[in-house]
Amino acid sequence: MSKLEGKVAVVTGASKGIGAGIAKALAREGAAVVVNYASSKAGADAVVEAITVSGGKAIAVKGDVSDAAQAQGLIDAAVGHFGHLDVLVNNSGIYEFAAIEEVTEEHYRRLFDVNVLGVLQATQAAAKHLGEGGSIINISSAITHVHTPTAAVYAGTKGAVNAISGVLANELAPRKIRVNVVSPGLVITEGTHTAGVVGSEMEAGIIAQTPLGRAGQPDDIAGVVTFLASDDARWLTGEDITASGGIR
Fold first, then answer.
1. Which of 37, 95, 108, 154 is an active site residue?
2. Would residue 154 show up in a list of annotated catalytic residues for this protein?
3. pLDDT value at 220 more than 80
């Protein structure tokens, strides 16, 4: 039997990149997957098609998790369609870099609203439906360890996610709901291409510091998330797994 057979998972921000890789990996292990997107319906539909063509179950649901009503609507749609909820992957996130002289209130609020408030609101909505054995996996970043210049606000959002995850691991433990973090290093995605990281001096510098000598791929992160979602990780909660090729 597949590791996630009979389980239902919501993956936020799953229309591309790491989120899309996670959604496909969960489906390969038997989970029915809700592919969340905020703007790219075409991307989410493509992920759903890839899953269903391979014999899996998936639907696409629009929702901006930084808005409480939309976060609740996303979870309601998942439970309404599949009947229950077992796994929440808080993957939605945006990253922008700015030197301290260039940080603005708008920049701060944009990142914190999605990266931090979004995690809180999606989790709040999902926690009402998760039962014993439920798993919440929050996607953070290895940037909290490596302290990259110009990333003060982004790194701050991910540091907040780490702290929130530790608190929720203890808070939800009496209900036997696990909360863990995966902190990716540099991963080659549409986002890192768009941000100009791929092919840049920044990429070369990061790879030079990475013991395994390469950037990551979405599947490198998806495998770790699938493990944490499964009963193989039943004794793990409050953990932060840095999936970065060894960079610290």
1. 154
2. yes
3. yes
